[in-house]
Amino acid sequence: MRWLRRLGALSLVAIFLLLVTVWWLLQRPIPGDPVELAASGLEAPVQIRYDGRRRPFVTAVSFTDAVYTQGWLHARERFWQMELLRRAGKGRLAELLGRGLLATDEELHRAGVPALAEQMAANADAATLAVVDAYLAGINLALVDLVPPVEFMLLGADLTPWTRADVFAIGGVMAFQSGRNMRNELLRLNLMTDLTPELASLFLAQGSDLPVSVPERIPFDRYLALEAALGSEQPFYQPPLLGSNGWVVGPSRSATGQGLFAFDSHDGWGMPSLFYEVHLFFPGPSGPESVRGFSVPGLPGAINGFNEFMAWGFTNIGDSQDLYLETRDPENPLRFKGREGWYEAEVTTVAIPVAGAEDHELAIVRTENGPLIQTSPPISLRWSAAEIGTEYGLDALFLLNRATSLEAFMAAIDRFPAPSANVTYADVAGNIVFRTLGLLPERGSGSGLAPLPADDPASAWRGLLPLTGLPRSVNPETGYLVKANARVLPEPPLISADNAPGYRQARLETLLAAERAVDFKKMSAWQGDWYNLQAEWLLPEMLDALRGSEFESHQVAVTLEYWSTRPLNEPELAAPLYFNEWYLALARRLFAERLGEDRFQALLGNSYVLNHALDRLIVLAPDSPWWGGARRDLIRSAFADVLAAADRREPPRGQVWGDVHQLLFKHEMSGAVPGLDLLFDRGPFAWGGGNPTVGRARFRYNRPYTATGGATVRLVLELSQPMRIGAIMPGGQSGHALSAHYDDQLPVWMDRTLDVIPATPQEAGDVVTTLLP
């Protein structure tokens, strides 16, 4: 037995040594802080200070020196994230991650994302290229002594220097991800082709713009492949989506007489967070300047943020993509029926590198509407951002970042071809503004909700809407402005008919209208508001259907009746769970049999399309043929389904909302090797809120109820001198899993509070690193 004990002791030693080795490998990439570092290409020394969360405060003599330093910081803290984003923009994810990402690369190429990036690079003027080159110099300086991050070690990948093309590639993929309507169009086409026009019209906000006779239905397995390729379920690549809440309050409605700004960007949650916070200070032609806020690693400047004069934030809106049902000559696969007769399509070939295999040759077929995103049946994509010509480019972001007047801000917004978005704005002069930006189509027919026949002359775009003519509001009499991905009114022009339900925006409008003296504290609290306006709207109708039945006095019905008077999605309450289960049970009763299970699951996977259809049925369409004359019976049957499901659950599992609605922050590679999730991921955590709440916690109805997206940034400002600043994000500044700053902001984020952000570099602390020319 002695030898067994000796073997056991040796095993423990081996395990200990293995753990020490793994820990050492994981610790190595965490960058240290040099006191001084030689940095070729700088004009003058740059000082870097950090606050307690490792937010960098950079003091430089010019904007180019500041973004040089930003590039150095990005590469040291987030190089893995940068690698994925640049590869996505170039359609080269499979080169690093293997054949499983080939479909994503194909769709990015077909959609024209790499081509857009190349056009943006070609459009860049000398001033823009000077900023980009400075940023690249900082990245490549960091790569000189950067220890490969753990993700690179796991893949056996090399660190490769950055070029101009990489920066523009990230700009291209961000523009593409903001125009997601094409996925909704594909879904509607699949949902509607087996339905009568009367039933199909439910899935269209403005009647039916789908031809009654569709030449050929998309095979459903092909639809699912397209959905995955377009980024809905990627295991590695989680791009920015630019969903958000943004609202501003003018001095007349502010408790202090100073303008107020609130913004929270909604994206997929992951580790690390999508954004990296940065604070850049430098002298400008008219005095001190700054660019502060939230940057995407791989792009210089700030996407959402503020400077010494103003604050801005983007909320996704607008429909810049349309799909067309093409008619192909059965004798010639490259011949298509156009609006003026038959013609020959153009074909280009792209070689896509694949790890461990030969390059994949992709043929891109371009019709008069745009490239085919699928070939059987042929469907083409027209995307306004692919038509920027030689006029627009990345300079718009830098002009916005450095705008120090309302006029300069307006001029910068007029330069944005993509993404299609609303921007909310407040400045120290007391102005509040919203603007719609981005190139959008002037359609000949339809509202962009479903694919149109390519050979119909009416389906052609008439052109692009002029940027200067898009909706705006400047200093309204209400004293406040709110944008939350809901539809822009009034119209025309048609900005989009395919938006988020208006619950978040309506809730914020209600809060602001009721408050005559808004302050910083209220703005911060509203960002975490869990009031469920969808439940307030739907439950009276649903509960009314129970009157006179055996369910009317059931404990669950009584609970929902009481909760509906103040429906907060608190994690410790059972009512939010009952409501969502009833909602899903009713969706199944209404849609599953007619659509079939596969299509029903696809509908559940798109909450916007489901919400618009089902919520309209419940409240606005009691006589719809979808009810089959049995509206009350169907609602009651769905309620019985909820009770049956509750009886099957064994306490304490699934008794309250927080038991099932939980946060999960996943790293792209946590599932690649068993056990990595314990190191890389955070959660799950019981959580409140939901899809319709201002404090959003997005889940997919086909995977209830794990929350995978919501606020990746929360920012509140009082536009005083100096500014009062609060901010937080779910995670931390570092992308290195063993860094103390990988997840140090997460507890504050989960408390639904904000960190106080230093107003000046000096308040952040002492100089930590100096970059020397």
Major sheet description: 11 strands, mixed
Describe the oligomeric state of these chains in a short phrase.
Answer: single chain
From the spread of the alpha carbons, the general shape counts as: globular
The beta-strand count equals 31
Q: Residue share in helices? A: 25-40%
> What integer value in Å does the Rg equal?
27 Å
Q: What is the residue-mean pLDDT, rounded to a whole number?
A: 90
Structural class of the secondary structure composition? alpha+beta
Strand order of the largest sheet: 1-31-2-3-6-7-8-9-18-19-23
Distance between the termini: 67 Å
Low-confidence segments, ≥5 residues, pLDDT <50? 206-218, 229-235
Strand content: 15-25%
**What's the helix count?**
25
Key terms for this structure?
globular; seven-stranded antiparallel sheet; alpha+beta; 25 helices; eleven-stranded mixed sheet; 31 strands
Question: Can you characterise this structure?
Answer:
The structure is a single chain. α2 (63-90) crosses α8, α5 crosses α8 and α9 (181-192) packs antiparallel against α11 (220-232). With 773 residues, the chain is of the alpha+beta class. 36% of the residues lie in helices and 21% in strands. The chain is built from 25 helices and 31 strands.
Concise synopsis of the structure shown:
By secondary structure, the protein is of the alpha+beta class. 36% of the residues lie in helices and 21% in strands.
Give the secondary structure arrangement, pairings included.
Elements: H1 2-27, E1 36-38, E2 46-50, E3 56-59, H2 63-90, H3 93-97, H4 102-111, H5 113-123, H6 126-143, H7 150-155, H8 164-178, H9 181-192, H10 197-200, H11 220-232, E4 243-249, E5 260-268, E6 276-284, E7 287-295, E8 304-306, E9 310-316, E10 321-325, E11 328-329, E12 332-338, E13 341-344, E14 346-352, E15 360-366, E16 372-375, E17 378-383, H12 395-401, H13 406-413, E18 421-427, E19 432-437, E20 441-443, E21 452-453, E22 461-464, E23 472-474, E24 480-483, H14 503-514, H15 520-526, H16 533-544, H17 555-563, H18 575-595, H19 597-604, H20 607-619, H21 631-648, H22 657-660, E25 662-665, H23 676-680, E26 682-686, E27 697-698, E28 709-718, E29 724-728, H24 746-750, E30 755-756, H25 761-764, E31 769-772
Parallel strand pairs: 1-31, 3-6, 10-21
Antiparallel strand pairs: 2-3, 2-31, 4-5, 4-24, 5-28, 6-7, 7-8, 8-9, 9-18, 10-17, 11-12, 12-13, 14-15, 16-17, 18-19, 19-23, 20-22, 25-26, 27-28, 28-29, 29-30
Helix pairs in contact: 2-6, 2-8, 4-11, 5-8, 9-11, 12-13, 17-18, 18-19, 18-21
